[in-house]
Amino acid sequence: MMDSGTMDGQGRSLDEIVAERLAQTRQLFLNILGPRLEEIAHARRKVETGAIRAEDGMAEIRSVCHKIAGSAGSLGFADLGDLANEVQTVIDELRHAGRHGAEAWHVVRPIADEFYDAAQAVLRR
Fold it and tell me: How many angstroms separate the CA atoms of 12 and 30, rounded?
C-alpha cells in the first residue's frame, strides 16, 4: 500500500491520484446535473399544465433531489446538497401532514425553483 508520499509507476503520489479521481467524479456529477435539472423542469411543466397531479410532480422532484443531495455535498457543492435535502424534507413533511394538491405545490414550487437556480449557477461556473 502506498502512503501519500509514495509514487506509483507513473510517478504520481497517492494524493495526486486521489485528487485526479475526485476531479473525474466531480466532472461526472456536473455532466449528470444538467439532465437531472431537465427532469425537474419537465415535472414542473407537467404539473402546471395539468398533465400530472401535483403529488406526482412533487414525487418526481423529490426523487431527483434525493439523487443529487448526497453526492453534491461530498463533491464540494455543500450548499447545493443542503438545498436538495431541504426540498426532500419539505415534500416529506407535507406528505406526512396530509397536505397535497395545489396547497402543497405552492409550498414546494418556490424551494424547487431555488434549488434549480442554484444548480444552474453551479453549471455556469
Answer: 26
Q: What is the pLDDT of residues 6-38, one digit of tens each?
A: 666 667 888 999 889 989 999 999 999 999 999
- To the question of pTM greater than 0.70 for the whole model, the response is yes
- Which amino acid is present at 17? I
Tell me how many degrees the CA angle 23-26-31 measures, rounded to the nearest 5. Answer: 125
pLDDT digits (tens, 9 = 90+) for 73-101: 889 999 999 999 999 999 999 999 999 99
Query: What are residue 103's phi and psi, to 5 degrees?
Result: -60, -50
CA distance 50 to 47: 5
